[in-house]
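Researcher: For the annotation table, I need structure tokens for Glutamate ligase. Please keep the output clean. Sequence:
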Amino acid sequence: MAALYEQICLEISKGRIKNITSDHQKVGKDFLFYAPSKKEHAHIKEAINRGAKSILTNQEYEEEYLKQGVNFFVHTQPQQIYHRICSFMWKKQPTYVCAVTGTSGGRSVGHFFSQVCTLAGKKAVTLTVSNEPVETLELWQGKDRMISDAANMHSILDDLADKKIEYCCLAVSGAAIENRMIDSVNLKAAAFSNLIRDDLAQPEDAEKRFQMKARLLSEILPDDGTMVLPFASEYTTRIMQCCPNKKVCTYGRAASDIQLISQLPTQKGQILTMKVLGKEVVVRTNILGKFQGSNLVTAIGLAISCGIDPSRIEHEQISPLAGYMEFLECCGEDRKIMTDCAETPSELQDLLLSMKWHFPYNDITLVLRCSEDCEGKNTLKMAKVAAKMVNRIIFTGDSNGSTLSERTRRELMFCCPKAIEIEDRRKAMEYAINNCKPSEIIVIQGVRSPTDKSRIINNADAMLKAVVTSQ
């Protein structure tokens, strides 16, 4: 493996490899195309036609390609060296890079981290690192970016360093960790937020998922890095046992480095009273959601581990990601309409518990998007959660016009016998708005998402705005 790595690095040094990618559509002249699986194998010929002169893969190659002057670098586990090659091609990165992983909340933690650093007078961004392909690399709200390839990530880190951006948080999925996408990033700190069993397909998946995500702290985080961990989590003890010599910054209700003394809701946000490294700090925010308060505390832990003093910033200026417990501003004083991008049972439960926390005297109507595809695998579980927590449920389909099977309809109505089914999404929104009481809050799930650029989401967002403005 070492010899193969050195050979490819030599090709880069001599200028014979000018760029690297695993996306066949982005291949250009003198590129190295990374093809670690059958999915990419099918595109090797196209990559060569586009100008690739080097292929890193785990399969045998055809002799005709060699006649075209194409170099094949073959290894049974190419992912073991791909991240190192990308790091060699793009050597620079911001001074302070940290990472966060967990079942949920990672993107919010990263988003809050970049804002805490910015309010402290530093230049900061967040990169979401996932092994899933994405359609766009546009910045979210000017600060956050989605990454699905190690080459793309290292090139962006290199560019950030050139732009004198000092702080960067990577919100990393378990799949990205498993595929070693960030193994060559020099981290200052890493956080493990949570592992929610309810969202797993099989209970036994919990241990596998934990081991996958724990690699971030046990193997990827350097020995001089800081682990940011929830004090009361069952997994914190296990992680600390695996990494006895690494520094730890704990947070939670109990006595810890960041102790959350109290968390009080308001109708526009929350007030957190914390003891940060022995100093009491009152944080007033415009962030809705009890779970988001926990995400903010995690972000503060990462910021402290990167040398930021969070006690001196204006916390009121911190805002959540678009699509999370977001009230529409165009509804007037008489109506409260909230959108949220909850996609799993635990996320929906966190949302509804937070609604009761912020608005204990308001009735709630939930417009729940139901689907038969892979995104809708949790529909029935989410309906069961909603049945226990809201006053009225309206089931509706996707904005792309897909319909539910008769079996799914029966299952949904069985667990929620008082629910209303309105298949047309626009009509469901209109019904909810036209039949709401003055004190009622309408929650429309699955409308906006900071990472989902699909037609379903975009259509629903535009549809909702059209419904509201027509009232």
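Researcher: And a one-line annotation?
Model: The longest helix spans residues 205-220.
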